[in-house]
C-alpha cells in the first residue's frame, strides 16, 4: 500500500482547521453557556477547556465515559503535546469528548448526567422554517415519477448535510441553497443498494435536525426498494454539535407525527412499523465517537461493513474518517483513497473542510481560480461510490 499523505493539522495560520478552534469553538462555548443555566463549576470548566485548546497541552488524564480503554491509549500517546501540534480529526474529536466531561454528561452523580448540551440547537432546527420547507417539498413528491422521486430523495439527503449545526455555529447566515455536484455516482449507488440479496444496506448518519429527517425519507425509500433490511447507524451519545443519536431519531419521528401533511405522518408511521418488525434496525458502535479513521475500525464494525450490500456514509465527518483527514491531492481517485474499505461504500458529502478527493483535474483548476474557498462553503457536494 502506498504511503498515506500526512494528516491535516491545526497549526497553520489562516487555515480552516485552525479557525475551527480559534473562531468556531469560542462561539460554541458561548452558545452552551447561554442555552443552559450551568452552575459556575461547569461554566468554568468549559472556559478552561477552551483556553487549554487554544494555548495549552494535552493533560495525561483520560476523559471519562464509555470507550475508556480506547481513549486511555489515545491520550497516553499524545499527553504533553501542544494542542496545535495535533492532527485536526484527533484534536476535534478530543475537544468534544472533553466538552462532554466539562458539562458532566457522563457523571452519574450529577443532575446534568445525560443532558445533551446541544439539544436546544437541535430542537430549534426541528421547529424551524427550513424544515417546514423541506417537508412541504417531500409532500409534493406524492404522485411524482418514480425516477424523479428517487433522485429528489437522494439529493435531499445529500444537501441536508448543509444543515450541520457545527458548520453554522460561526456561519449562521451560510448559503444553504443547493450547489454544484462535483461527482455523481448515483447510478452506481442505486445499482448496489437495490441488487438482489438479503444483506443489509447500512446508512451511517451524520447530523440530527433537517439532515436526519431527509435521511429517514431516503431510508424509507430503501426499505421499499431494497431486497434486504436497512440499518441506520447512529452515535452512541452526543458528539460534534448536531450528531444524531437514537433520541434524536425519536424526537424527529414525533415531530413528523405533528406535521399537517398526511404524507409526512405516513412516513413516520412506516418507519416506526419497520423498526418494530426489525426491517429497519437502529444500531450504534463506540467507533463512531473515536478520534480515528475507519482505516483502523474495530474488527466487529469492519465485519459489519464487509457483510453489507452497501454502506452509505453521510456527511463531512464520515468522509474524513473514510478517506482519511489528510492532505490528499484533490485529483486522487476516490477509489484509491477509499480502497481499503472492507465492502462497497458510498459517500454523500457536502464539502465543509479542506479535504477533497475525486475531483476532475480540469474542474479542480477552474474551481481553484473561480472560488478558492470552494472546499469550505458547503455549496459543492459529492456522491462517490467505491463498488
Describe the fold and architecture.
The protein has 387 residues and is of the alpha/beta class. The protein has helices at residues 16-35, 40-55, 68-76, 88-102, 119-126, 129-139, 146-159, 165-169, 186-193, 210-225, 246-257, 262-277, 299-307, 315-323, 334-337, 361-370; strands at 180-184, 201-204, 230-234, 280-284, 310-314, 345-350, 380-386. α2 (40-55) packs antiparallel against α4 (88-102) and α10 packs across α12 (262-277).
* CATH topology annotation of the largest domain: Rossmann fold
| Radius of gyration over C-alpha positions, nearest whole angstrom | 20 Å
The H-and-E topology, N to C, reads as: HHHHHHHHEHEHEHHEHEHHEHE
Our estimate of the beta-strand percent is 5-15%
Number of strands: 7
The main sheet comes to:
7 strands, mixed
What is the annotated CATH architecture of the largest domain?
Answer: 3-Layer(aba) Sandwich
CATH class of the largest domain: Alpha Beta
Helix percentage: 40-55%
Number of helices: 16
CATH superfamily of the largest domain: Uncharacterised protein PF01937, DUF89, domain 3
The unreliable regions are none
Tally of distinct domains: 2
Shape: globular
Short summary:
With 387 residues, the protein is α/β, with parallel strands linked by helices. It has helices spanning 16-35, 40-55, 68-76, 88-102, 119-126, 129-139, 146-159, 165-169, 186-193, 210-225, 246-257, 262-277, 299-307, 315-323, 334-337, 361-370, and strands spanning 180-184, 201-204, 230-234, 280-284, 310-314, 345-350, 380-386.
Amino acid at each position: 500500500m502506498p504511503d498515506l499523505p500526512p494528516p491535516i493539522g491545526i497549526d497553520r495560520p489562516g487555515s480552516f482547521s485552525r479557525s475551527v478552534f480559534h473562531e468556531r469553538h469560542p462561539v460554541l462555548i458561548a452558545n452552551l453557556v447561554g442555552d443552559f443555566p450551568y452552575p459556575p463549576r461547569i461554566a468554568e470548566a468549559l472556559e478552561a477547556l477552551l483556553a487549554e485548546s487554544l494555548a495549552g497541552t494535552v493533560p495525561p488524564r483520560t476523559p471519562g465515559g464509555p470507550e475508556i480503554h480506547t481513549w486511555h491509549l489515545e491520550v497516553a500517546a499524545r499527553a504533553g503535546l501542544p494542542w496545535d501540534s495535533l492532527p485536526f480529526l484527533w484534536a476535534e474529536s478530543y475537544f468534544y469528548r472533553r466538552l462532554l466531561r466539562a458539562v458532566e454528561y457522563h457523571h452519574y452523580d450529577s443532575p446534568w448526567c445525560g443532558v445533551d448540551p446541544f439539544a436546544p440547537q437541535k430542537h430549534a432546527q426541528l421547529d424551524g422554517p427550513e424544515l417546514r420547507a423541506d417537508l412541504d417539498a417531500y409532500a409534493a413528491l406524492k404522485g411524482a415519477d418514480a425516477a424523479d422521486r428517487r433522485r429528489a430523495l437522494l439529493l435531499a439527503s445529500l444537501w441536508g448535510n448543509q444543515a450541520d449545526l457545527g458548520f453554522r455555529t460561526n456561519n449562521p447566515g451560510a448559503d444553504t441553497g443547493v450547489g454544484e455536484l462535483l461527482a455523481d455516482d448515483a447510478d452506481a449507488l442505486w445499482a448496489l443498494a437495490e441488487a438482489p440479496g438479503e444483506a443489509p444496506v447500512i446508512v451511517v448518519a451524520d447530523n440530527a435536525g433537517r439532515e436526519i429527517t431527509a435521511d429517514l425519507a431516503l431510508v424509507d425509500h430503501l426499505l421499499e426498494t431494497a431486497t434486504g433490511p436497512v440499518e441506520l447507524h447512529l452515535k452512541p451519545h452526543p458528539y460534534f454539535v448536531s450528531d444524531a443519536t437514537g433520541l434524536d431519531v425519536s424526537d424527529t419521528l414525533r415531530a413528523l407525527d405533528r406535521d399537517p401533511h398526511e404524507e409526512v405522518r405516513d412516513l413516520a408511521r412506516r418507519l416506526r412499523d419497520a423498526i418494530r418488525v426489525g426491517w429497519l434496525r437502529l444500531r450504534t458502535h463506540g467507533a463512531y465517537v473515536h478520534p480515528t479513521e475507519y482505516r483502523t475500525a474495530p474488527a466487529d464494525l469492519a465485519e459489519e461493513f464487509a457483510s453489507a450490500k452497501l454502506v452509505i456514509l453521510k456527511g463531512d465527518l464520515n468522509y474524513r474518517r473514510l478517506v482519511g483527514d489528510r492532505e490528499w491531492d484533490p485529483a486522487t481517485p476516490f477509489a484509491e483513497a477509499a480502497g481499503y474499505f472492507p465492502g462497497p461504500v458510498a459517500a454523500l458529502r457536502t464539502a465543509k473542510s479542506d479535504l477533497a478527493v475525486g475531483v476532475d483535474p480540469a474542474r479542480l483548476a477552474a474551481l481553484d481560480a473561480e472560488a478558492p474557498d470552494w472546499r469550505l462553503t458547503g455549496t459543492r457536494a459529492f456522491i462517490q461510490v467505491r463498488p
